[in-house]
Specification:
This protein is an alpha/beta fold. Helix content is about 65%, strand content about 10%. Helix 2 packs antiparallel against helix 3.
Amino acid sequence: MQNKDRRQRQRTTIRKVLLYIRNYWIFLILSLLLAVVTVVSTLYLPILTGQVIDQILGPGQVDFARIGGILLVMGIVIAVTALAQWLMNVCNNKITYGVVRDIRRDAFAKIEILPLKYIDGHSHGELVSRVVADVDQFADGLLMGFTQLFTGVLTIVGTLGFMLSVHVGITLVVVLITPVSLFVASFIAKRTYTMFRKQSEARGEQTALIDEMIGNQKVVQAFGQEEKVLRQFDEINERLTHFSLRATFFSSITNPSTRFVNGLVYTGVGVVGSLVAIGGGITVGQLSCFLSYANQYTKPFNEISGVVTELQNALACAARVLELIEEEPQTPEPADAAVLTGVSGNVTLDQVYFSYTADQKLIEDFNLKVEPGQRVAIVGPTGCGKTTLINLLMRFYDVNSGRIAVEGKDIRKVTRGSLRENYGMVLQETWLKNATIRENLLMGKPEATEEEMVAAARAAHAHSFIRRLPKGYDTVIGEEGGSLSAGQRQLLCIARVMLCLPPMLILDEATSSIDTRTEMKIQNAFAAMMQGRTSFIVAHRLSTIQSADVILYMQGGRVLEQGSHQQLLEKDGYYAKLYRSQFAV
């Protein structure tokens, strides 16, 4: 049953790969034609060599004129073979790396539209391994397949044809021994695919762990987890070693096994051919030609068996990346999705239900109406649904039931791009790309002028430290902000939103990495920025949201209290207890 499933998976993967190769059918046809030219010209050389030998009858009995003509033809044939082989390799490279480019493009494009549920549920390092390492392995196997598989098969067929034209009896000796080589190759191929797939999976797991540990090395060292991480790495490394050794073992026995069969073929041709030559059935030149063909006939079996092994690895890797490409994307936008325009900040949540998993309820019967320009603060214990509410507003996740509307339009019926253009979001976790500060600030408004960019940086209190950097706004910062402090990275994220100034804002603990003095300045800047704009503020420090128009106290996915700061204090409920716990009043 397992073998049947494995074969079915392989066939499915091959069909999918062929769909990519189909885009390069012109190069594929050219490669096949050039392979035919290469094989025919290569196989014609032994005939010419045999003819030369037959012109050497003995001492003083050499037909130099005839040999000279044959040598000229041999030179032309060799030149044609070399040119055809070079052009064939060019075509094969074009096909292979074109297919690899297309697969990587589709894989990355799929990552861009995958639901966050999938991204959150998979290791980032494992995804990177699929797109980078697995595709590289696939490219190696595919290139070897095109380079050696076509010519190998054509060489076998062509050699048999040429041998049959010389002597049928000796050719039968070769044909009768051939099934042994095919059996050996098939036996090994069946056992390599499983090992190569497990090797690829273990490699992805290892890449994920390395990526995770490098990105969080400070935390690992701070909590003394080095030994535990090393043990975890060793366990994965041992599994990878085990699978790699088994995959390498099966692939390494291919060559000596087929070489043994090749020896049988060569011996059979030599013995039978000699007896036929003694009986006058063939000339010495033809026997030499046959022995050369015996080598050329068996050589492709070595190459093809090696190619089959590599293709097993390539198919295993291709299957993993194709699984990613075929993952269910986020809910597609309807064909008649509207572009959200003229947004003033009117937001309505009507009987919203949402949970990440079916067995764990989170937000239930959530109702909220926000007027344009209102500041809505969301507070509550960890896990109450604050960040989840932000994910729903931005449509990173879709509600299970109910409705979220902006300006009266269900956000599921408008384009995601137009919805998100109307939100400015600053999260607790900063994100900056590996580029200049200028490029990072202009992400949301590429057409902004220099004066607008500097004004936004000044408003976010980022201009002073940017000016002190080696190249100012043209300073390249590394991944995740490079050597900038957490506070500086946060200021750049705030400046990025201040430059766009959309009609709605989301501030998820946006000043958590900033010192108290700078925070006071930022709060003043936020107050000016939020003026006339609908704002959703997720906060743990209640001092930052006392001036909010509406404060929502959430617990267990439900809004338990709603009102202004003063109203909730007078109510003396959950919010009042939380406030007193922070300020000891």
